[in-house]
Amino acid sequence: GDLTDSASIMRILEQVKPAEVYNLAAQSHVAVSFEEPLHTSNTNALGSLRILESLRILKLFKSKFYQASSSEMFGLAKKLPLDENSHFSPQSPYAVSKLYSYWITKNYRDGYGMYACNGILFNHESPRRSENFVSKKIVKGLVEVSFKKRKCVYLGNLYATRDWGHAKDYVRMMHLILQQKKPDDYVVATGVEKSVKDFVNCVAKYLKIKIKWTGKGLSECAVDLNSNQIIVKIKKSLFRPLEVPRLRGNMNKAKKVLKFKPNYNFDKLVKDMIDHELKTLK
Ligand code: G4F
Prior knowledge:
Elements: H1 6-16, E1 20-23, H2 30-35, H3 37-57, E2 64-70, H4 93-112, E3 116-121, E4 124-125, H5 134-146, E5 153-155, E6 161-162, E7 165-166, H6 167-177, E8 186-188, E9 194-195, H7 196-206, E10 211-214, E11 221-224, E12 230-234, H8 252-258, H9 266-281
Parallel strand pairs: 1-2, 2-3, 3-8, 4-7, 5-12
Antiparallel strand pairs: 6-9, 10-11, 11-12
Helix pairs in contact: 1-3, 3-4, 5-7, 5-9, 7-9
The chain binds ligand G4F.
């Protein structure tokens, strides 16, 4: 199916009559959403509405619906950690599109009594992450540097912080969210905040690359102390027109209601991604 094509969504739902629908489809790259705001909005915002409205027209009121909402919706929110009651302040066409879907999901739940839930997920990574996201870019880049297959990794804002969890944990959470008696919205996070620079430092540590940061602003770089080569440089074009400077979630509600215990912390996540990259390269 295609979320921009109502008929294809309607046809699939009518054929399958699903017990549970997980809407994970999106133009999911924040930076790309500044280049393709219409495509992003059509897919991410109206796409969710197309599913919900199809379920309603087809009278599939027993189908449970999960919407992949995003911590990006909090944007510039000043008070951390962020939970289900925090203020939204979206900072990109992507975040605005996700906020539309968040509200329309609530609307269909409250207005039509549908079992529709939002999982407000903070960044979730895994070896399957594609290279245009910063976690994979750093891991793949530095692994290649350590094997002398590449000289340098280029990054944008080193000082943005994110709350990084493992996709495997978060997918289990998505499932749990749809197994509750009552439909509701949940923040899914780790509660730990790390910067992009922390991510680089952690990957370098695992790969036993000793680095030293020098310079400021666009001249800031990381030097490999063994080879004396610059292995991380800053590129202006990788900065976004608007940035979400900090994200850290509070998942007390999910822990209490869903009784969820994650298997991964930040270090284990980074190690999993590195191990996969080393295996692939070898
Ligand atoms: O890895 P990112 O591109 O992820 P971002 O923008 O936080 O979004 C991800 O998480 C959201 C949940 O919070 C999802 F909704 C969304 O779909 C996606 O999965 O960037 C993380 C941070 C940003 O602050 C960015 O400016 O890393 C910074 N960054 C610095 N250099 C970079 C780079 N990001 C990318 N992609 N590439 C860089 O070179």
